[in-house]
Amino acid sequence: MSGIDVARLITADHKIAATPLIMLTSYDDRNEMKAAKDVDIRALLTKPVRKQMLRKAIIKAVAPKPSVPVAVGGQVERPKPPKTPILQPGGTMLLVEDNEMNHDMLSRRLTRRGFQVVIAVDGVQGVAVSGKYAYLANGTDGLRIYDISNPTNLVAIGHTNNGGSAYSVVLSGNYAYLANGSDGLRIYDVSNPTAPINVGHANDGGLAQGLAVSGSYVYLANGADGLRIYALEPQLSIGLTRTNTLLFSWPSSLAGFNLQQNPDLKPANWLVVTNAPTTLGGQNQIITPLPGRSAFYRLYSP
Where are the alpha helices (DSSP H) in 127-196? Predict the structure, then answer.
């Protein structure tokens, strides 16, 4: 699908037909210039595009169209030309580009200008399967979850979308990790696949397109920004049981963590709680007696 085809689809949809359009092309072509004008593309740029050229094109695209002269009392009144708008940060830019280096570069430039950038990608980009469920990284549509118990009759059961463009999905324990384009890294609790919950987010610029999860680390392929490595810090929950004991729990998907206890927070006084954890509902659990005095607890990965 060409840029002109995308513009035709946008202008044909009355809900988004008024969206200002800018088109980048690799070469000058009179027929393409005419086609761009016919579908109301307001600015046409030839690659490579410099920062000032892009800025001027955006200003031109968002500027109000000049009014048509009106005849009043036999005289033609020509309205004053509209003022050139000041390009303020904010708003959302939909970036349709089939070259990853180009949309990475443009995304970073627009993000630095204060715009939220949504990158259009074509359909399903990645898939992960666990048990009877398939998790789809579905481009600008976000994360889709299907029940695949019957492969001949897939049933959509869950969906979430926090913006960005979902390129890749990885499952680990009860969590789905999503490389979400310009939106960065998203982490969802999918213990209930019909209602995924966003529990984590990181965005350091770049364009998140691929990822891997190993132990307590996420490795993110982040476009021109390079490789990002994130440490996963599990949340430790503490509760009091009916038998007046302490119940500690944390996600079992994060391996290599020990529960430690300390009476006074002095670094040398941290000791590993020797009770072996049990696993229930995707959580590691340890039950201990109430301490005789104040005590502090933490999860520690050696």
Answer: none
